[in-house]
Amino acid sequence: MNVQEEYRSKLSNPVEAVQLVKKGDRIITPLSNGIPIPLLKALNARSDLEDVSIYSGIELFPLDLYKPDHNPNLHVHSVFLGPAVRPGVQHGWITKVPGRLGQCPEIIRRHLNIDVVMAVVSPMDQHGYFSMGANADYCYAIAKMPTTRNVIVQVNENMPRTWGDNHLHISEVSSVIEFNQPMVELPDIPMTKEDEIIGGTIAEMIENGSTLQLGIGGIPNAVGHFLENKHDLGIHTEMFSDAMLELYLQGVITGQKKTLKPGKWIGCFALGTNKLYKFIHDNPMTEIHSSEWVNDPTVIGMNDKMVSINTAIEADLSGQVNAETVGTVQYSGMGGFIDFVQGCWNSRGGKSFIALYSTYSNKDGEKKSRIVSAMSPGSIVTGNRCEVEYIVTEFGVALIKGMSAKVRAQNLIAIAHPDFRDELTFQAKKMRILD
Questions:
Q1: Which of 33, 118, 157, 397 is deepest in the core (most CB within 10 A)?
Q2: Active site includes 106?
Q3: Catalytic residue chosen out of the listed positions 59, 238, 287, 389
């Protein structure tokens, strides 16, 4: 049987394809644009299933599966909360699974066998290979595991075909459906005054020839904006973004100084606009690989002058950072936060920055400090005090790594909003951190 014949023999529709799912199965999908909408809809419509678990992340599509009245025999779990599941996690009908993105495949190998992978892929090539396109993330490695019973793919002509280790052969696939769902685009995030100040501060500390990891949001975008006068930057990141594309088009990103895969953009998924998706399509300069390789701190550290910029919700005077919860309410997830903090520390000349606004307004409109004496009750520690290197607000940069408890507190109070510095100093003295 040639590859085209094998493709036709496995071609199905969503209702037929999800019949491969059995009682008690664990199913996993990629992040964001890799989530197969028609397969999850068909799965939610099955009334004969029992105790089936579905794992995904950065859920962008508002499916019935994510609503409180979804099929009671399906248990939904999110590794990194997207907007579609955030209400469900916060109210209890969807479960958050903590974990580092780079460690997800190994967690599956050791503790959580997956039975079925469902993923969106690009059209098959003449040799019988599908590309996982913009979303290799954790799912590609899991699809290749011998313990995975079935791999069901949704061929989407809108999914870019990407270079890198992210391809599945038709012989490895159990069932194929065809459905051309649009790629979700991230909206443009306008820069605030605070974004500009923080972005400019971090950009000044980034040297020519550095390799970048940028997170999602206004602050990472602002950092990109202020790098336009830098030279020979490279990319080794969890996520490709439009901010990186703009720097490339300006001639700032060349990758020529990279010490790991010079000239190549390295990432494990892409999320942005159609302009970005078209750029990575069949572009040998951009490579999408599994998160367990991209996010491995040892691999990250092979890049000299590796720089990561991530955002956070709060930081306490010991240097602990919360990037996941608002009090006890889960808001996002860890993702590659610690992967890249550790990776930058492994890098010769590396730096890792955690950026946050100095204040926020609560539901009553009261201004509150994001630099706190101690973590708010129920807050999750995403970055522990021994890992975090630099914390940045619109009032400056605090060096944390290697500093004493006293110096940490002093450095963090100095970058807190002036309205809260006296209270933080009082609390630090009360806690016997300051004299």
A1: 118
A2: no
A3: 238
